[in-house]
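Final report, results section. Input specification for complex C-07:
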Amino acid sequence: QCIGPSMLPTFNIRGDILVTERLSVKLGKIRVGDVVMARSPSDPRMVVCKRILGLEGDTITVASDKGGSTKFYHLQIPKGHVWLQGDNFHKSRDSREYGPVPSALLQGRVFYRIWPPQGWGFVGRIPSQSV
Amino acid sequence: MLWKSLSDVAGRGAAIVQCVCFMDVFSNHVLQIQQCIGPSMLPTFNIRGDILVTERLSVKLGKIRVGDVVMARSPSDPRMVVCKRILGLEGDTITVVSDKGGSAKIPKGHVWLQGDNFHKSRDSREYGPVPSALLQGRVFYRIWPPQGWGFVG
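Structure output:
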């Protein structure tokens, strides 16, 4: 289940029930745009649900709106790491806060939603409309 | 006749499957035998590889302490498991003795891993504090080489 505001509008706050597959992660076949479940780097007991916006070696441009103005900076994602970000730009604690995340923390790739019923279907690599 | 021998085989097959399942669960959640190869934990462990028993409960219950030797997934290569000592826990300030020097405060949910071999170890001095979720188990006993039998302190 994915609960919380960080993946709006793709997933609901009150929690969507998802099917994740483990093989992509184990085989290293994760791509930019995939939604994944991962252990949180800041709390090992918590599992978070975010989108992959960059893989190791990619240079990512981060838009950060701390201090009122929006600033941009670039960084290169180190070997063995990925950049996780929630679809909800303003209300998501993700790599913009804790930096690139080691890929060993990834648990599985979200590929299908089974709840709510009106949201049945495959979860794609592009943020979708809310249900 | 045929039916009886088929059911014998099925019975044995089921017992084997149960055994394998039990061992798998035991090894992932309680105790595991692993090998630590490489120069980074000299002189504690040998280069050619010591065979160690690791227990999983301390990590799962969050009861890891400074000085414990742990097995962890490497942050720079998710397919690799490394064997290092914990020199700091979340919230600790650690003084890094390396070419760059300086102190670092270990963020929430992270630990500082360092090999006993000061000069030949790729560890947190290189890749920074490591998320505790990467820790796999605590090394507590060595079973090989035979002259090194005993608890790992």
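The beta strands of chain A are 17-21, 35-39, 47-54, 59-64, 71-76, 81-85, 101-102, 106-115, 121-122. The domain at 17-122 of chain A is CATH 2.10.109.10 (Umud Fragment, subunit A). This concludes the modelling results for the funded period.
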